[in-house]
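User: I'm new to structure prediction. If I give you an amino acid sequence, what do you actually give back? Let's try with this one:
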Amino acid sequence: MPETPDAATVSLTIPDLRDLCIAAITAAGGSPALSQSLAEATLAAERRGKTAVGTAHLVDYLDGLEAGRINGQARPKVTKQLPAAHHVDADRGAAQLAFDAAFDDFASSAADLGISVLNIANAFTAGELGYYTTRLAERGLLAFAGANSPALMSLFGSPGSATGTNPFSFAVPHPDGPRMFDQATSATAWVNVRDAADRAETIPEGWALDPSGAATVEAEAALAGSLLPFGGVKGSNVALMIELLAIHGGGRFSVDAPAFDSGQENPGTGLFVIAIAPDAFDPDYSQRVTDHLDRLHASFGVDFGRKRSLEVIELPEELHSALLTRSRS
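Assistant: Good question. You get back a string of structure tokens that encode the predicted 3D arrangement of the chain. For your 329 residues, that looks like this:
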């Protein structure tokens, strides 16, 4: 694993990073199935350049496994009470493993029935939402997903945290690879505030409140206080909608969920995914979408949802060393 010219990073091929992630997850108590699922989700985020929810976020999962917040030997239970309604009890494990357990039947039912819904409960927080929607788009399906998380964000001007950052993602098939977006309902992702605090940096106005409910640009105060939704009331509406859909299968409301980064209890929040067949109403839909996205690009310079697919990952040297140490423990 040679170092890059920048001594602060190490260059890793995808197979090398996969092996390192699997070794670290296994050493932390993950089963072979969980280790594989979580490693693939981590790689997907890194390949898209989403480093904050890639290998850096894997450390949160390793901590969760070692502390008992994640059941490393989880056996997800899949049930289907209706032809297009799929449910997975994640058994206090990772949401990515629960998604894998239901994926094939879920995707097939969407293709056969035109639409299908999956809800996951009793899981650790979902990680990068784009991972779930992109996989479905790679199967030729439109996908919309959302998840709630432990309460970290104000709603409708509340002085304290009333819901999670509640990310959502949409993906559509495309001949050049799925077009996807993935965003939080907060003005910024919680990990960005945590990173700013680690670097002793301030944050922009409009990102967060301090513990008293006053606006702040101090990252440490923001971590002790609440994030703000994007767009004020509009973002609050979206965040609450995502939560009400996410907990449909029995997940905890955000205010009832324990923290994902401390203690021994699994957050148990929810995740929903909706998959839709492109030809459910119009057999020409996929081609029309492709033509329209091409038109937006050619006429307006808009390149919606195109993602990178990196083959070599530049991992911070400190993070690489930490994963190596944990993989050998």
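You can read the tokens as a compact description of the fold. Here is one thing that stands out. The longest helix spans residues 95-113.
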